[in-house]
Write a structure and sequence with these properties.
By secondary structure, the chain is α+β, with helices and mostly antiparallel strands. The chain has three domains: 1-183 and 378-408, Uridine Diphospho-n-acetylenolpyruvylglucosamine Reductase, domain 3; 186-284, Alpha-Beta Plaits, CATH 3.30.70; 287-371, Alpha-Beta Plaits (2-Layer Sandwich), CATH 3.30.70. It is 30% helix and 24% strand. Strands 4-5-9-7-8 form a five-stranded antiparallel β-sheet. Strand 7 (131-138) and strand 8 (143-147) form a beta hairpin. The chain is globular. 47% of the residues are buried.
């Protein structure tokens, strides 16, 4: 065996894990490696490379279902869906720009393992909500299957929900089946200009509570360097609200929403082309990209109740040099902080404890990610349950042990 084993098929993955069990070795499970710098630093004996498991194995547009091997590039899947005017409705983000990796390197297995979702999550849900089935190899060296090709296919435990977001620590997924949905014919984005965080949260809440079917709601403060469309003002806060669908519906809802928001401040509108550029940049948190002005800063991802986003931002800004962005109508807060010895973790955890939610350290030096809890620390009961689940799937800790929490 070498330090890196590149599997060609599911049988190779099964054999590799069985070898690791026999030799008392551990694996770091990777696809293209676009999220390798996310989580606690790997302390594995070898790398199990799944990037060779590629190819779409089933696509039935009329049934809204697609299956692919886990190492299939997300870009390949999106290109195939585009031929039938379909998409992955959960709009998975690309962590590459944040982590210093070229964009477009993500795989479908990585999307599901990290439970990635973008701005449309507030309407369509997360990756796990579209995850229908998988074949995987557990840390026991056993191939298992869960789910199927339709939504209502589960009896007993829904293991798809468990594997989504497990970061490869419970099983090495080899095949993925996902629900697809029709892509919107067009879109437009209404911009509210110059709002502070709290009024922006109220405006987004009002838009989400209306009958206008908003599919994206984000706020970018004026101090965040951000310009992807000509209509965006430089140095001015923007509160963005996206509308998608057939053109007559988008036009009608745009007018309705503009009328509803007119009293809150100046408005602007982005057409479909500019809107797509804007939401891709918001999805991938481009203002905090590793090769941009905020590239040396640590980045935290905080999930909370939408109306608590402004208060979390206030607590962080009072204690740290911070740049902040808001997605999911304020329920997702991205914080880029100046480097510090503790990663500003006490401030972040205090803010979350005060307002509710959970925080994840997305970008920081490896030494800091080893010293500071990267994922939200778990209460004793939940931590015990997590360990029992890990023990059930991977009793010897072969697969990515310690990536999410020490000792798990």
């Amino acid at each position: 065996m070498t330090d890196a084993l590149k599997a060609r098929d599911a049988k190779d993955v099964e054999s590799a894990v069985q070898w690791a069990l026999a030799e008392n070795k551990t694996f770091e499970v990777v696809g293209q490696g676009s999220k390798r710098a996310f989580g606690r630093p790997a302390q594995s004996d070898a790398t199990l490379d799944l990037s060779g498991l590629t190819g779409i194995t089933l696509y039935e547009p009329e049934e809204l279902v697609l299956s692919a091997r886990a190492g299939t590039p997300l870009a390949e899947i999106e290109a195939q869906l585009a031929t039938a005017a379909q998409e992955l409705a959960f709009e998975p983000m690309d962590y590459g720009p944040l982590l210093g990796v070229p964009p477009g390197r993500g795989t479908i297995g990585g999307v599901v393992a990290a439970n990635l979702s973008g701005p449309r999550r507030i309407k369509a849900g997360a990756a796990r909500d579209h995850f229908l089935g998988t074949s995987a190899v557990s840390g026991r060296g056993e191939i298992f299957k869960t789910g199927g090709r339709v939504v209502k296919n589960v009896t007993g435990y829904d293991l798809c929900k468990l594997l989504a977001g497990s970061w490869g620590t419970l099983g090495a997924m080899t095949d993925i089946t996902l629900k697809t949905l029709p892509r919107a014919e067009t879109e437009a984005t209404i911009l509210l200009l110059g709002l502070e965080a709290e009024p922006a949260m109220r405006a987004m809440a009002a838009a989400m509570g209306s009958s206008n079917e908003v599919s994206g709601a984000a706020h970018v403060p004026g101090n965040v360097g951000f310009r992807v469309a000509d209509a965006l003002p430089i140095g001015r806060a923007i509160t963005a609200l996206r509308l998608e669908g057939v053109e007559p519906s988008v036009v009608h809802r745009q007018r309705e929403l503009q009328q509803r928001l007119r009293s809150l401040g100046p408005l602007a509108v982005l057409d479909a082309v500019q809107s797509r550029l804007l939401w891709r940049a918001i999805r991938d948190v481009v203002p905090f990209a590793a090769d941009g002005p905020a590239g040396t800063r640590m980045v935290w991802r905080i999930s909370t109740a939408p109306m608590q986003g402004a208060e979390i931002a206030r607590i962080i800004s009072a204690a740290c040099d911070a740049e902040l962005m808001f997605d999911w109508a304020g329920g997702l807060v991205w914080a880029a902080l100046a480097p510090s010895d503790d990663g500003s973790a006490p401030v972040i955890r205090q803010a979350v404890e005060s307002c509710g939610g959970h925080a994840t350290l997305v970008r920081a030096p490896a030494a800091l990610r080893a010293a500071v809890p990267v994922f939200e620390p778990q209460q004793r009961g939940l931590a015990a349950l997590t360990k029992r689940v890990k023990q059930s799937f991977d009793p010897k800790g072969v697969l990515g042990s310690g990536r999410m929490w020490a000792g798990v």
